[in-house]
Amino acid sequence: MKKINILLILSLIITAGIFSCKDNEDFSGLHDLTDDEIAEIARQDSIAQAQKERINADLVLEYSMDITISGSLYEGGNLEIELDKLAEKFGITEAELLAGIAGESGAPEVKGFAIAGSTHADIAGASNTNAPWGHWWDRRGDLTAWGDSAMVFAEFYPENGYFTVGQYPGHLAAGQQVTFIEALKYNEIRVAVKITVNAVAPGQITADVVSTQDLTIEVTAKSVYDPDPLTFDLAAVLNDLGIDSLTEATFIGVNEDGSYATEAVTGYGFWYDFNGFVGAWGDNASVYTNYGEFEDNQISIGQYPDHLAADETYTIKYGFMANNKIVMLNITIKVLGYVDPETAPEGNPEAMTIDIELSKPYSNDYASVTADIKETFRQAFKMTTYQIHKAIGDGTFKLYQGAVSEEDPSYTADVPGYWLKEDGTAGGWGESVVWTSVGHSETDLYLYGGNHPDNATAGMTVTTTYIATCNGGSATINLTFIVEGDNYIDPETAPEGDPENLTIDVTLSKPYSDDYASVTADVKETLRQAFKMTTYQIHKAIQDGTLKLYQGSASEVDPSYTADVPGYWLNADGTAVGWAEGVVWTSLGHSESELYLYGGNHPENATAGTTVTTTYVAVCNGGSATINLTFVIEGEATPEPKDLTLTYNVSFAADSVNYSGTTVSLSANGDIDKVAEALLMESSAIEAALLAAKETPQEGKIAFAAVEPGGSLNYNTTANGLGFWFDSTGAVIGWGSDNDSKLFSEFSSADFTFSIGQFPGKSSAGDTYTVKEAFVYTKDGVEYQVTFVFNVTIN
Prior knowledge:
The protein is mainly beta. The protein is built from twelve helices and 47 strands. Helix content is 15%, strand content 39%. The strands form ten sheets. A five-stranded mixed β-sheet has the order 1-10-9-3-4. β18 and β19 form a beta hairpin. The longest helix is centred in the N-terminal third of the chain and has 19 residues. It starts with a helix and ends with a strand.
């Protein structure tokens, strides 16, 4: 619509110039820009571009890296960044910087965040990946989540000190570039790390094998993935490839068809099937290769647990490629039976008892702690660790909760193990608070467990009894599991006075984006004053649900959140709805030191130019904070096509011989511009968009129809081309001398003209008819109708 209006305005201006400025014959001609005008336009454009490209940071570090595209792997590469420069800018040490990113207690409060690539707006949140700092990014370098729009991710683990940059499998295309900005803030200083990922295609390997090394290794069949080292001649490999380090090489394996595999899946190696070819982890996997776990001149040979057997032999190929040359390792793997290093304790199996305490801080994941029980089991069962490990694997070892029974135990956690309810009885995941299981390998036996991230709370203690039986002996474990209390030292003091009712006006404003990128507004001090609590106390109240956030007004019923808790999806009128109906979403973000409102637009339901207003009421500790929220999706509203009805009163003389009538030209009367405006297209595009006669609606096209008296659409044309015959009631009918066919209307797309005529001899002076035809335009699955009404009078 905007484009059409501009064209119409320009047309009027030019026309006005032609007819009102006859004394200036060149008024309607093109103006030739002077050199000064061209220079000024360029200057203004450069300023606008610079403002758009400016990154709000005190230090910007820029890096570029290549990623080989993959249809199945998240692989990419590691990117070392200049930590010394970041630390120097913050005025802290590198160790303090890493500790701050990791969120260690007592470390500087270094906060990670993201900067949108398209707008350079700040996006709160240190991470939406598995790392403490790092994000998923879409093709424009805007923040997104794992899923359909994701292209690349960056993860910074402080213990590594570098970014791991990877890809969403199958989303990158060769030659594509994605530039994104990870950022940190300490006090008021901001630093940005701008990373450009260059997507490159895996090249077809035409390299020659310039040398081989024949290697043999003996391995013991295992029940774990733990690898064994295999030494090779590293110096010869580097010399033959002409490189200084294997970091310059590509690791390859050999597929069954003889081609080379280059997409490493074990780090820098591959899984192999039982025939020795590159395969996949799973039922058909035998061994795997990797590099970097042992010495520089050693590769890793691991195995799929319990898939290998004594006296088997496997031959695999694992190579290195650089400078269009390959060095191949031909590896023979001989499988030996396990040699138990232990001797079972002497004597008869017995009944033993052990008291075990597992203690850990509450965590919102399944992190575990362990306690060794190897010697107790060895003595009770008079078996070696390996024998007990195998007994757990084959089920002859049994672990009961509460008391031994004649029936086999029904485990509810990692086998053998249980989820436990608060009273210490075995339960399912949904009703339990902690879990514990027996961990085992050829050399270790231990009890391990963790807390339920949702059901458990800090300060909780669970006690239970396990009885393990095997080989005629038993081991009773009196278990105490402690979810440790909160040891956080609150740096704040709660505001003095009684809780009160406060009101704040908050505006969130962002450009429309086709993802869930968010903006934030600080609400910490308002909530602190309203509830007379510290930030940390409010943070904990949000976690345990004692802070409640209502949309509209507070009630006696707990709120039903529809977005990130606590928060809501909102429709255009500001009421709370689900994701499918929502236009924007807002939630209350929280941490030990921050409280903020954040939100974004729905990538499909929202449009630029939309403003949503609502009221939130947060209640806690006897106080309340009313938040009058205005959410603005910046930009002009995206226009939509609309329905239109055009009515024409026409007349012509009755004719008993000819199919005579009249015409209505949409071009001559200017109505073609009204049609174009309604359908949001140029009038010149209408002809190309029109479908052939009898075709039904299609996306992005215009179907031609007759409108029956009842309003239904009929696409089955009965006259020439885009045309219909109508009876005396205006209903569609076929041509015929023996039926009630009275009028026809045929549309010519070449000149936008309707020809309305009569069946000879069937009408008389004074007869009147109404017939209707329509353009049916489909956009984004919605049909828009332009109806042409012809009121016909026969003279």
